[in-house]
Every structure is written in structure tokens, then in C-alpha cells.
Amino acid sequence: MANTYERIYNAAPWCLKELLVSLEAWRRNRHRRYGDYAAVRRDNSFDHYRLPFEAHRALQLESLQALITTAKAKSPYYRYLPDCVHSLDDLGSIPVLTKSDVRQHTSDMITQGTSPNKLWKGITSGSTGTPLTFYVGKTGIRERFAIQDEYYAIYGCEYGTKRVRFGGSKIAPSDRPTPPFWIINRYDNQLQMSPYHMRPDRLALYVGKLNQFQPLYLTGYAHALYNLGKHLVEHGGLTVQIRAIFTDSEGTPPHYISIIEEGFNTQVHDVYGLGEVGWAAVQCPQGKYHILERTCIMEIVDDDGKPVPPKESGRIVVTDLTQTDVPYIRYDTGDMGTLSEEVGCACGWQTRILQGIDGRADDLLITPSGRRVGRLSHVTKPGRGIRESQIVQTAPDKVVIRVVPLPSFDSSSMEEVVAVARMMIGENIDITWETVDSIPRTNRHKFKHVLREFTPNA
Ligand SMILES: [Zn+2]
Predict the structure, then answer these.
(1) Domain membership flag for residue 115
(2) 335 alpha carbon to ligand 1 midpoint, in Å?
(3) Which residues pair with 248 in a beta bridge?
(4) Would the CA dihedral through 443, 444, 445, 448 be positive or negative?
(5) Which comes out higher in pLDDT, residue 201 or 373?
(6) What band does 344 get if pLDDT is binned at 50, 70 and 90?
(7) Does some domain include residue 458?
(8) Average pLDDT value for residue range 24-34
(9) What is the domain range of residue 333?
(10) Domain final residue pick, 359, 374, 409
(11) N or C: which end of the chain has fewer CB within 10 A?
(12) 349 CA distance to ligand 1 centroid (A)?
């Protein structure tokens, strides 16, 4: 269901939309960069990562103990926690928190005494293709923006300088035939460009707008930047020099990064994180994924929640140390990752390193040309009133999005779902949708959000 801001925005004439975007940015910034924000930024300077690794571990333990004490005492959901933990290894005995736990216990997770206006409400597409509503304390939101601003600043990209965002905001109706497919948020000096309208025949228009706007840096969804990067590799046309590109939200495949870097003639820095727990790892100037050990605890575990050794792929589980209003303790991200054996790196940051973010092993479609398309959990995000969904490739050139509707299902929102799917899957694939009564589980009773019903040619 669209929130009040979205309803007003959608109904407003274009000339008013720009004003609304800036007003909304101002409103949001009151929960992001408020109070002594400069001090919060200093606390989150990446220079602290030059301290010895043991210093980060000590800080983690201290923050974890405070988090567990608060959660146990004040959050009705977390009564099962132990009274205290003596070492970081004790974390392994606490059950993991799944997306389905969050869905069922959203309000019970909030610590008692936390007023609703201290909470920020987020929405994400869950691993089952069912949008998940979650809450985060606003102090945590502020810290997350401080981390982000500090990170971009390492690469000479200060908050407030001109940037372009390719993100999830709905900028125009999905059937809008002509530009603008973008809107300027003057408050943040940010041009928002819609990934949902990026059809191949419109990419030159996007490039033209970038040339005109002259941004210093770009941020956003990797698949959108990849589409544009590929266009630039093939057709050129970019006249503005971009200082850096930051990809986020999805875990970016290495071949995407090289195409984006070639097309835009700049370096890409990728970030791994989730709305629920914030950023958990960022790429350093050497291209390695450093775990943000001072603001989260990342574990790589097996299906029973037990740690797996470095160089073996396991589930990425994250404990958020930025806030205690809504504790996320051992949150199962649903993503797979592999730890490197190294600690520290030539860049000087003394942290553990993620060797790879492996995505969901089975979350892949294969296009007729053999391209593997993963990380499709964003596809159903614009859908309204979906209980659960499944993206099924029924033939090499056919994809069906099956949805189990809720009473509030809005079939018109599926247009946008199909548009996102088309953008991500691309090529000459027929994409349709249908409603079904239920989504069958596999013979191991597992739910699969993405499924191939045919065997691709080797
Ligand atoms: Zn490094």
C-alpha cells in the first residue's frame, strides 16, 4: 500500500513533484543527519579501522553485551536470550533470527519504552518475494548515514556535492512514454533516475541527462548502472567525468563491476548491506570487501547456525550494533558469503575480509545467450498485496511471475513488477504474470523464489 507521501506525489502535477521530492528529503534528513552529526561522523571515520583488529573485537564484545542486556530486559521477543555473554564465541549459542521471525514478531522486537517517533519504518523484498516491513531505531539510521557519508568521502565524494541515485524510488508511472524519467531533489543536490524506465532505446536519453547534470558521483542498484555501462561501452556519449560510482543493495557480480568501470571510465566501489541491519561490508580502494567490524558482527554459518571455516561458503548472519531500539541479533540475511583467511589488507584497514558474496546459489535464471541473472528479489518489490511470489523460467525465452494474492492485491501494480523483471532479465524473453492459489514447496519443503522448469543446454 502506498504511503501518504507516495499518494500525494503520484497525484501531483510534474511541476509540484520536484518541490515534494525536496520537502520529503528535508523531512527524511531530520531522521538521518540530526543533532551533533559531525561527532557521529567522526566516530565512524574509517581511520578507526587502522587500529589493531583486537581493538575492533573488544568494541564488538562491549557493544554486544550492552545490546543483549537491553534486548533481554526490554524486548518481549528476545526473552530467550542468555543473561549475558562473556565472549564473542558465545554468540554461536543464540538462535538465528530469520526474515520470517521478523515478519511474525515485528512489534515484539521493539524494546519497551521506545516511542514510535524514534523508529524508522522500512520495507524490503524478503527472500520469499514477499515484501517485509521492518523497523529500525533512528539513532541507528543516523549512524548508518554517518558511515555512508564517511565512506563516500574517502573517494572525494562529499555529501552535498552533485550526485545521481539509481534507486527504488518511484519517479514516474511505469507506462510513462517520454522523459523525464528522473527528478531532481534540490535539498540533497541529488538527481534521482528511474531504473524502471531504462529500456534500451531510452539509454541515450539517460546519458544526455547525465551530461547535462554534471554529477560528481553516482550511487545505486548495480543492474541499472550495468545496463547504462553496457550502453556506454557500445555507443559511448558520456562527456562528464564521474569521480566514483558506488553500487549497493544487491551484491554486485564482478563482471557487472568491470562493465560499469569500462563504460563510465571510473572506479566502482561496492557495498554489501541490508535495510534491516545496515551496511555490513564495503570495498576498500584495493577492491577488497572489509567487514564493518565496529558497527556489526558478521558470521558465516551453516544451516544450523554454526560457524563455517574461512574459504567455505555459508549463510551471512549479521548482528547490528548501531542501535538497541529494535535489536537485530544474528539476523539471517538470506545471502551466502565466504570469509577470506586474511585479516587486514594493504589499504591499512585491520578487519576480516569477505572473499565473496555468493548471492543465493539457486536464485538464477539463464537467458538464451547463457547470461546468468541472479539477485532477483527486487523484482516483486513494487507489487502490492502479494502474499508470496515465485519467478519461474518455464522455457529459455519465457518467464512467468506467479503470485499468491492477498485480499488487498492490486493487479495494476504488476505492470511495474513486469517492468523491473524486464529490466533485470532483459533480452528477448517473454515475461508474464499470473495469480495462483499457492506456491508448491520443493520435495525438501523449501520455498524457492526463483525456479527454472527446464534444463538449459550446456
Ligand atoms: Zn583493504
Answers:
(1) yes
(2) 22
(3) 221
(4) negative
(5) 201
(6) very high
(7) no
(8) 92
(9) 4-359
(10) 359
(11) C
(12) 6
Q: Which three cell numbers stand for residue 343?
A: 585479516
Cα 71 to averaged position of ligand 1 atoms, centre (Å) = 33
Residue 344 zone, left/alpha/beta (φ > 0; ψ -120 to 50; rest): left
In Å, what is the CA distance from 151 to each residue of 50, 215, 294, 391?
Answer: 14, 18, 14, 35
The alpha carbon of 350 and the centre of ligand 1 are apart by a number of angstroms equal to 8
Ligand 1: centre distance to CA 152 (Å): 15
283 CA from centroid of ligand 1 (Å):
7
* Domains identified in the chain, total number: 2
Q: Residue range 346-375: average pLDDT?
A: 79
For 217, the enclosing helix (H) or strand (E) is strand 217-221
Query: How many Å lie between the centroid of ligand 1 and the Cα of residue 324?
Result: 29
- pLDDT tens digits, 44-80: 999 999 999 999 999 999 999 999 999 999 999 999 9
Q: What angle do CA 389, 394, 395 make, to 5 degrees?
A: 150
User: What type of residue is 152?
Assistant: Y
Percentage above 70 pLDDT, the chain:
93
Output the CA 304–ligand 1 centroid distance in Å: 31
**Mind spelling out the 3-state secondary structure of 282-318?**
EECCCCCEEECCCCEEEEEECCCCCECCCCCEEEEEE
Taking the CA atoms of residue 149, residue 153, residue 155 and residue 159 in that order, the dihedral angle to the nearest 10 degrees is: 70
Closest CA to 381 of 409, 335, 416: 416
Centroid of ligand 1 to alpha carbon of 129 (angstroms)? 34
In a domain, 100, yes or no: yes
Q: Is residue 260 part of a domain?
A: yes
| 251 contact partners, CB below 8 Å, separation of at least 6 | 270, 272, 335, 357, 359, 375
CA of 285 to the centre of ligand 1 (A): 6
Residue 286 Cα to ligand 1 middle (Å): 5
What are the backbone dihedrals phi and psi of residue 136, each rounded to the nearest 5 degrees, phi first? -140, 140
245 CA distance to ligand 1 centroid (A)? 17
What is the value of pTM for the model shown?
Answer: 0.82
**Bond preceding residue 382 cis, omega within 30 of 0:** no
Ligand 1 centroid–CA 14 distance in Å is 44
Q: Taking the CB of residue 237, how many other CB atoms lie within 10 A of it?
A: 14
- Residues 6 or more apart whose CB falls under 8 angstroms from that of 142 comprise 31, 32, 33, 34, 35, 37, 40
Average pLDDT of every residue of the chain: 90
